[in-house]
Amino acid sequence: MNMDLVGTVAHFPAPGETILGREFRTVPGGKGANQAIAAARAGGDVQFVGALGTDPFGDTLAAHLAAEGVGRDGLDRVDGVSGIALITVADGGENTIVVVPGANGTLADLNPVQQQLIRDADVLVCQLEIPMAGVTRGAGIAAAAGVPVLLNASPVTALPDELIDAVTVAIVNEGEAADLGDAVLQRIPHLVTTLGAAGARYRGPEGTTAAVGAPAVNAVDTTGAGDAFTGALAVAWSRGLPPAEALEYACAAGALATTVFGAGVSAPTESAIRELLAG
Ligand code: ADP
């Protein structure tokens, strides 16, 4: 989980230059937190395993999770700063982003409470914004306890064998799928590929496949669509829905997220998802 510090500028400063920005806002972010909140809104009973610093951003971010109904039993507060992203957005929409991991960088191992939460869960959802050692450890604990592991392989990077062997469902967009490559993806039992406005594709064990179109919506901002999709897919998977139905639920959530402007969480509630699916 990060605090995004977003400033808008007419143009980016050159090295050594100081310029005046226009607007500034702080927005809670980070894929893990966004997906946890998306899952809670989509009807899940969610515990967040993560780390924040002892700085004021840590307090704000923890309160943000609480306000969204996300459990914090597995939230570690460690000495130092919380993860932050320094974002400048220039006229025309181009941005520069500096991510400082802060407390997220301490998640190479998991404390006993975090480990037990994973064993007790119906599903574990991971992303790659914490150290790979922490993801691999969490996924290994889940797999050993028979808990399905859903990995949103983003930001995409090479995956260690131990992690690949623990993953039940990989959730990737087309670029991430290409970066990981068929050799890796074929080792994962269930593969979900998101296709933007075209929806999502599923490939299961023994070559079963499904394709689900995204509902037609008035998309105004696709930021956060992938996180809404993953959070909702996790809820559907935890309920034991067949893959095609789970993808429909997730596609509806992703589509609804695109109808909301702005940074921050744009994920829809369970009732909004159901309403869209009911047509
Ligand atoms: P990412 O943002 O991670 O690259 P995608 O762009 O594939 O992910 O979007 C994730 C999901 O959000 C899609 O599978 C789809 O369900 C939904 N989605 C994204 N863009 C649109 C759109 N323009 N219209 C409807 N649904 C969309």
From TrEMBL:
Domain Carbohydrate kinase PfkB: start-end pairs: 1-269
Binding site for K(+): D221, T223, A257, V260, G262, S266
EC class of the enzyme, as a word: transferase
Binding site for ATP: N173, T194, L195, G196, A197, A198, G199, G226, D227
Any one annotated GO CC term: cytosol
Entry keywords, A to Z: ATP-binding, Carbohydrate metabolism, Cytoplasm, Kinase, Magnesium, Metal-binding, Nucleotide-binding, Potassium, Transferase
Catalysed reactions, semicolon-separated: D-ribose + ATP = D-ribose 5-phosphate + ADP + H(+)
Residues annotated as binding substrate: N2, M3, D4, G30, K31, G32, A33, N34, E129, D227
Active site annotation, chain numbering: D227
Inhibition and activation profile: Activated by a monovalent cation that binds near, but not in, the active site. The most likely occupant of the site in vivo is potassium. Ion binding induces a conformational change that may alter substrate affinity.
InterPro entries associated with the record: Carboh/pur_kinase_PfkB_CS, PfkB_dom, Ribo/fructo_kinase, Ribokinase, Ribokinase-like
Function in brief: Catalyzes the phosphorylation of ribose at O-5 in a reaction requiring ATP and magnesium. The resulting D-ribose-5-phosphate can then be used either for sythesis of nucleotides, histidine, and tryptophan, or as a component of the pentose phosphate pathway.
Name of the featured protein: Ribokinase
